[in-house]
Amino acid sequence: MREGAAPGGRSFQAGFRPIYSGLCFCHFIITLNSSSRRTHLSLHVVELPGQPVLRVGGQRATDGVLGPLQEGTALDITCSVSGGVPPPKVVWKRQEKILDPTVESRSLTLTVNQLNIARLTRAFHNVRLTCVASNNNVTAPVEASITVTMNQADPHPPPDRLSVSIPDEVSCLHSSSCHLLLHDDECMFSVEYIVPFPSCCGYICVVVDVAKEAPCRMLCAPLVTRLEAPPKGLRVGREYEISCISAGSRPHPNITWTLGNVASLTPITAITEHGVNMSTSRVRVTASRRHHGQRLTCTSLNPLFPAYPLSDSILLNVTYPPVATIELGRGVSSVVKEGEDIYFNCNVDSNPPTYKISWYHKGRSLLHAPDRGLLLTGNSLALRSVTRHQAGPYMCAASNVEGDAQSRPLNLSVNYSPVCSDDSSPSRVYATGLGQYINVTCTVKASPSVAKYLWAFNNSVTTERIPGDQVFKTPEGGSVVKFIARAHQDYGTLQCWAQNSVGRMAQPCLFHVVPAGRPDPPMGCSVVNKTYDSLAVGCTPGFDGGLEQTFLAKVFEAVTGRSQVNVSSRWPNFTLEGLTPGLDYIIQVMARNALGNSDPVRLEAFTYKMAENRMRDEQVEEEPGEEGPAAGVLLGSLVVVVVLVLVLALLVRCLWARRGQEGHRGRGKSRGYAPPEKPGGGLSDEEELHFEVPTISLEAHRDPITHIADQAL
Q: Following DSSP, what letter does each residue of 412-477 receive, concatenated?
């Protein structure tokens, strides 16, 4: 029973309160038959709940309208109801549909139900949310409502009425109808009227909420943002145009481009064009090596919905030629000692990966050679037991399909103990006379430079150290000893020892001091060219005997022994000119110094013949009858002359051969040959002359340094 009212709608004179609830007794007495009846009934007194109070964010909502709100935001509304016996049931409804029947808290005096909407969609635009409280089925429930608005726009007076049911979004065209795009079922509107609006594509389609019949204008975040056919790969140095489209935004979105990663984003300038329902943005990118692996992102954002950007992106794949750098292995210094191991690394940045890596030392390509301590593995180069000859600049080169590249050179320094400057010949010979001073210079190679020199002298008689007053330093860092041989037993060998921070040299530099003498004959003599009147001869100098030497060439006719040409020169190379064509010659080459001449070196050669001039025989016509006895006598005379000439030539040849043998035996050590002149002219060209050429001893013409060193020791 409602408080203060009786069943049937009649009011009691004295108002009931909830304290009167309980079991009541009613006693009726009927006087006709002196009988009575007792009746009892249950009395329930209901106290109605108070008016619901709505709060949003702790603030009381009093005007019945909430918004405008942004699409995608969350909404929390609290409905509080005080009083009510029994306690009321509090629920939230949307258009008569229960949204939230759960009561969060309840006490003797207050009941609370909080409505939580995690994400507002377009379907909540102009929706009435109602909080209903009821504790009986007799009286009407109490309620409070609030209307949610989302970016509500001012309505325009309707010129016409047009009813079209649409599920989502309206795209305006230059016509009296609306083009519909179907995406989802969040928005349920019907087009109510069309308003001309020249600044916006001709018309604005104004729609009315089906439930509330309230005019509104659609404002939506972008529905689609997509890159149009982005390139799968980019080549360094080329320019590319990339497009991005955005659709479904009202009003037009702002489209931005960024390049980079999360830690560092770089904005890119773009050109954007807006259409009816679509916006297109384009950027131009010149691919570079630093762009590889970065993300290019296109983002569209409606300023009215800042919390809901829509993006599409691509990870750039830029192909470029290699970039190579060379470095030493970890813990390895660029200055090492001879005999240590060392290795290099070639670091390559390339896309696609390299297919070949090459190594170079002083510009020469290096190949894998384990037997020489040269190891090539992948991007590494290893040198085992490095020597001083392996010092210098090293480079690596890398190749891929885009091109080739070389690293900058890395210089390797190898420290080693001193060695003689002339690696191929650690000993030299000095020839000097008694009482003559000579300066013997010792020059070595070392890294770092030499810190100390030591000289010693030895021969078959003594071994001693050279005093310091005879040792001097040269400006180039070498060492000089001033030496004099006062007697024959003073000749011998000087030893030069050098030392630096790495150590002392393993073998000393040797200088053999020998008595001066005649020079050795020239070596390797040969005729290098012939003409009809000249011969060219080339030789290699032999040991000069310790003194300055010159060279002499003499030319003799092989048949007569007459001297033809004498030529002297500082070098053993001669061009012998003014010779007779078609003759055989003997050439003697020798060296000369102040103490005399060397043994001659003998060569045989000949000059070419000149072309023969043939005269034409003239035919003489004789009268008949004159040919008989005169012709026979003339022919017989010619035969006799020819026979006599042949006999005479044979005799001359025999005598010449016998005399040549005797002269050769009498000369002994002389290797020259000069036959005596023979009066009466030479022999005919048709005769062949054979001479025995003395054999030149190779032992006498071997390396002069070794030869003199053997004599000195």
A: EEEEEEEEES-TT--EEEEEE-TT-EEEEEE-EEEES---EEEEEEE-SS-EEEPPGGGEEE-TTS
- Residue in 493, 544, 490, 551 with CA at minimum distance from that of residue 516: 544
DSSP per-residue letters across 231-276: -S-EETT-EEEEEEEEES-BSPPEEEEEEE-SS-EEEE--EEEE-S
- What distance in Å separates the CA atoms of residue 659 and residue 652, rounded to the nearest whole number? 11
Question: For 540-628, where are the alpha helices, taking DSSP H only?
Answer: none
Q: CB within 8 A of 212, min separation 6: which ones? A: 126, 127, 128, 147
Q: Is the pLDDT of residue 239 over 90?
A: yes
Pairwise CA distance, residues 175 & 630, whole Å: 145
Among left, alpha and beta (phi > 0; psi -120 to 50; other), residue 712 is: alpha
Higher pLDDT, 12 or 327: 327
Q: Give the span between the Cα atoms of 106 and 679, in whole angstroms.
A: 161
CB 587 within 8 A of CB 535: yes
pTM of this prediction exceeds 0.85: no
Contact status, residue 385 vs residue 341, Cβ threshold 8 Å: yes
In sequence order, the 6+-apart residues with CB closer than 8 A to the CB of 389 are none
Query: Which residues have a Cβ under 8 Å from the Cβ of 679 and sit 6 or more positions away?
Result: none
Q: What is the pLDDT of residue 133?
A: 93
The predicted-structure confidence for 402-435, as pLDDT tens digits, reads as follows: 999 999 999 999 999 999 887 556 678 888 888 8
Q: Which of 276, 275, 258 is nearest to 267 (CA)?
A: 258
Return d(Cα 128, Cα 553) in angstroms, integer.
131
Q: Give the pLDDT score at 79.
A: 92
Mean pLDDT of 147-161: 52
Confidence at residue 693, expressed as pLDDT on a 0 to 100 scale: 29
Amino acid sitting at position 170:
V
Q: Please state, in angstroms and rounded to a whole number, the distance separating the CA atoms of residues 132 and 334.
A: 87
- For the segment 462-476, what is each residue's pLDDT rounded down to a tens digit? 888 988 888 888 888
Interacting residues of 66 by C-beta distance below 8 A, sequence separation 6+ = 56, 75, 77, 146, 147, 148, 149
How far is residue 288's CA from residue 423's CA, in Å, rounded to a whole number?
A: 52
Phi, then psi, of 680 in degrees rounded to 5: 100, 10
Decide if 73 contacts 120 (C-beta within 8 A): yes
403: part of which helix (H) or strand (E)? strand 403-406
- The answer on pLDDT for 610 being more than 60 is yes
Q: Burial level of 573, CB count in 10 A (0-12/13-18/19+)?
A: middle
Three-class secondary structure of residue 489 per DSSP = helix
| Pairing relationship of beta strands 110-117 and 189-197 according to DSSP bridges | unpaired
| Max CA pair span of the chain | 228
Residue 163 has pLDDT above 90, yes or no: no
